[in-house]
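In response to reviewer comment 3 from the previous cycle, which asked for concrete evidence that the modeling workflow produces usable outputs, we include below a single protein chain processed end to end. The sequence was submitted unchanged, and the resulting structure tokens are shown without manual editing.
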Amino acid sequence: MALVFIAFIILLACGMPIAYGIGIAGAMFFIQHQNLPLAILVQLPITQTQNFALLSVPLFIFAGNLMNTGGTTKRLAKFAGLLTSHMRGGFGQTSVVLSTMMGGVSGSAIADASMEARLFGEDMRKSGYSKGFSACNIAFTGLITATIPPGNALIIFGTTGNVSIGKLFAGGMMVGLFMMVVMMFTNWMLSVHYGYKPASDHSPTFKEILECLKECIWALFFPFMLLIGIRMGLFTPSEVGAAACVYAFLVGRFVYKELNWNQFRLALENTVKDVGAVMFIIAFSAIFGYGVPIDRVPQVVTSFMTGLTTNPQIILLLLVLMLTIIGMFMEGAATILILTPVFLPMITSLGIDPVHFGLIMATVVTMGNCTPPVGLSMYAVNSILDCSLQEYTKAMWPWLGMFIVSMLILILFPQPFLFFANALF
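The workflow returned the following structure tokens.
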């Protein structure tokens, strides 16, 4: 497998798309082991896409696109603005809260960051926010969507590692809310330092909040509907994706009455594009991962890590640092698909809760979208806001520092984050 990993790194460095890099590098394993039938090389990508549990990924993507085109997003943005515009760095705080709400809608950090850059970018510029601050605020707060149900990263981890998706969703809710608090504090701290003022000069009244909440309640109930449906046994994780699509359609068509035929067709087109990109990576990851158990990679990694230390918390910290670096070069879904079979056997052998590790992994690899050199959220936001990489990198360090602190808290104090998952399941 050493040749496979080296080939993959070289292909990435040459600028090859991740899906092709994964597939070509994985094929190197079959070149090394000529006794393996080449028919397996063709069958693996097809077999991977037939995984029933992965059916939830395109369904949740479709549900999110239906809610976006059906008027849910603009109502959530209005509600988030009402709650936070009176705070220091008001537009930045609105972005944080909206990302938390959007986790149950988009499930994608890149989609969330791109949407918010278009939504708040011009207002932040007019309010005197620097481009670097605005870009980092929007990119880093987008990672909250990684764990709020139905985060795609949690679904892929749970499917790849055979970990309860229901538990991951329940734990992800707590981690997402915690990350919201961390990002709001970071935004407030930097806004005080730079002198950014509130977007509004008065706090909302209870009546205003209640009226706005009535419009958004259908969207805010969405993540809880997923958890309740799974916990009560009404749906499997795959079936709940179909229920989410029906729910999103009914809300957009009959509650908000904005989901017409043109919007529905737009949601379908966006879903085809999004699903095509994700499933292409997932399919070729089967080739890459085929040799992992054959060459005993998990056992080698476990022996190496436990040779350094047997302290579970230090092991988790080392993995966070490793995933942070890897996330700077690889897309999150690909990282989870490739490394979950490598790390999970070691994690379970050390007595670490797989759900706890899954929450950490999903958050950390998504954060890689916010850091150079190949952060997809970073490039999307910088492009929309016309922010240079130098400006972004200069403003990034406080956000990255607070993120690492939050991961330390998650590593050292897992029980508060797992309480909801353990109580519900």
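The longest helix spans residues 261-294. We consider this sufficient to address the reviewer's concern, and the full set will be provided in the supplementary archive.
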